[in-house]
Amino acid sequence: MRNIEHIYINGQFVIPHGTEMADLVNPTSGQLTGQVRLGDVEDTRRAIAAARAAFPAFSRTTTAERGAYLQKLHDAVAARADDAARALVEEYGGPLNTSVGRSRYTARMFLDVKKVMEDHAFVKTVGVSKVVLEPVGVVGIITPWNSSAWFIANKVATAIAAGCTVVVKPSELSAVQNQILTECFHAAGLPPGVVNIVNGRGDVVGAEISAHPGIDKISFTGSTLVGKTIARAAVDTMKRVTLELGGKSANVLLDDADFAKAIPAAIQACFMNNGQACIAGTRLLVPAHRLEQVKRLAKEAAEAFTVGDPREAGVALGPIVTSKQYERVQHYIRIGIEEGAELLTGGPGKPQGLEAGYFVKPTVFANVTPSMTIAREEIFGPVLSILTYETEDEAVAIANDTPYGLQAYVSSTDLARANRVAGRLIAGRVHINGIHDDLIAPFGGFKQSGIGREFGPYGLDAYLEPKVILGQAAQYPD
Ligand code: NAD
Q: Among all residues, which ones are annotated catalytic?
C-alpha cells in the first residue's frame, strides 16, 4: 500500500490542512493500492498566496534564466522517465510501450518549450509603438487523468517560459504520477512558490482556483461540462481561460483511400490510450458503396488489437481507468445496440480471462446513423462508430454535425483532394493519411472543444499580455 500524504507549496512538501483520503485503485487488477490525502480550500489559498508572492521576482527574470530552469526541469524529469512510465501503467493501465514513449516525451517538452521561448519576440514594434509581451500573472492549472504528467509538464513549462507562477490541481486519479513529477520540480531547484501543487477534488480545490481573485489565468484540460463550470466561475474576476475540452472526432475515408492502410489506422486513432483520448477518431465516415469491405477490414483490425495486462509487451489495449468509467462505456455499448447499430465485434461485458480489471472488449459498430447517441456523445472508451455517406459534401456535413471541433482525420490517395476536404472540416487539427505528431503547431478546439490554443508560439502567447508603450519619439504630438 502506498500513501501519498504531501502537497507542494512554496518549495516544500507539506501535510495538507485537508484530511479527506481518496483511494488509489489499480485498474488492471481492481485492487486498492493506496490512498492520497486531499487538500482543501485553505491549502489552495496558501498555494495561491505562495504563487502570488513569487510572481513579482519571477516575472522579471530574463529568458536566459528561465531557459536554465527549463533545462533543469528537463534533466530532472528525464531522470525519472522510467518511474513515470511505470506509474502510467500502474495507475491508469497505459500499455507499456506507449507509456515509455510518453514519459520520455514529457521530459522533452521542456526543451521544446525552451526553444519556442528563445525564438519568441517578447518586444516588438507595432505601428509606431513598442509592444511588450508581459507574463499574465498567476496561473491555475487543472488537468485530467488521461495523460496527467504530460499535460502538467506542457502547461507548467509554458507558464515558466512566459514568466508566470502556477498553482496546479492535478486529477485525483493520477496521484502517483503527480508525486513523481512534483519530486522532479523540486529537484530542478525552482525558486520557492513558482510551482505549487495541490492534490484535491475538482469541486473543492478546482472550484477555489476557478473563483479566487489571486488567479489571473486558468489553463484547463478536461471535459466540456467541467470546462463550462470553470469558465463561469472565472468570468467574475475576468480571468483569462484556455480550455482544452472533449471531442467526437470524425475520420473521413474518401473513396480513393488505401483502405488496407486507412482502416487499421482508423482503429488505432479510435483505440489510442485505451480509447481514452480527447483526440480519438471515434466516428469513421465511409463511402456507402464500400461498406461491406470496410466492415470486414474494421472487424479484422479491431480483433487484432490485443487487450490485456498493460505490463505485457504486445498488449495494445489496457483497462479503462476506473470502475465508474468502465460502467459509463458499458452504458454506451448497450445504448448502441438498443438504438439499432450493428455490432461488428466486441460488445457488452469484459473480455474472457480479464474479469478482475476494468477491461472493455474492443468494440466496433456499423450502420450507425448521425442521430444515434453513440455518434453524438464522447464515450471515452474503445468504441468505434462507422457511418456511411453518399457524396463528399455529405461526408463533410456529417463530420461537422457535432458540437465538438477538436480534431478530424481524412484519408485519400489524392493529397489535393484530402487538403480540400480538410479545409472544409471544422476542427482545430486535421490529420491527412494517419496520425501525425506536431507539438509546436497550435493545439486546441473549435466550438465546444475549447477556447484558445496550446503548444508552440500560440500556446506561449496565451500566457502573455501585450502592453503598448506609446510615444517612442518622446515628443508631444501636435
Ligand atoms: P474532468 O473534466 O472530469 O476533470 C478534469 C479536471 O477537472 C480534474 O482535475 C477534476 O478534478 C477537475 N474538476 C472537476 N470538477 C471541477 C470543478 N467544478 N471545478 C474545477 N475543477 C474541476 O475530466 P476527466 O474525466 O479527468 O478527463 C476526461 C475528459 O477530458 C474528456 O472529456 C476528454 O475529452 C477531456 N480531455 C481533453 C483534452 C484536450 O486537450 N482537449 C485532453 C485530454 C482530455
A: 244, 278
Domains 2-245+445-468 and 250-432 share a fold: no
User: Ligand 1 pocket, 378 CB below 6 A?
Assistant: yes
Mean pLDDT estimate for the chain:
97
- 20, 141, 169, 171, best to mutate for ligand 1 pocket (most atoms within 8 Å of CB): 171
- CATH for 250-432? 3.40.309.10
What residue owns the CA closest to ligand 1's atom 14? Answer: 202
C-alpha of residue 471 to centroid of ligand 1, in Å:
45
Strands in 143-273 per DSSP E: 165-169, 195-197, 217-221, 240-244, 249-253
Each domain of the chain, given as residue ranges in start order, spans: 2-245+445-468, 250-432
Whole-number Å distance between alpha carbons of 431 and 454 = 17
pLDDT, tens only, 374-431:
999 999 999 999 999 999 999 999 999 999 999 999 999 999 999 999 999 999 999 9
Query: What is the per-residue pLDDT for 267?
Result: 98
Torsion over CA: 225, 230, 235, 241 (sign): negative
In tens, the pLDDT along 440-467 reads 999 999 999 999 999 999 999 999 999 9
Q: How far apart are CA 17 and CA 39, in angstroms?
A: 6
- Quote the ligand 1 centre to 205 CA distance (angstroms): 13
Burial of 423 (0-12, 13-18, 19+ CB in 10 A): exposed
Q: Directed axis angle between helix 63-79 and helix 148-162, to 10°? A: 160
Q: Is 345 within 8 Å of 363 (Cβ atoms)?
A: yes
CATH topology for 2-245+445-468 is: Aldehyde Dehydrogenase; Chain A, domain 1 (3.40.605)
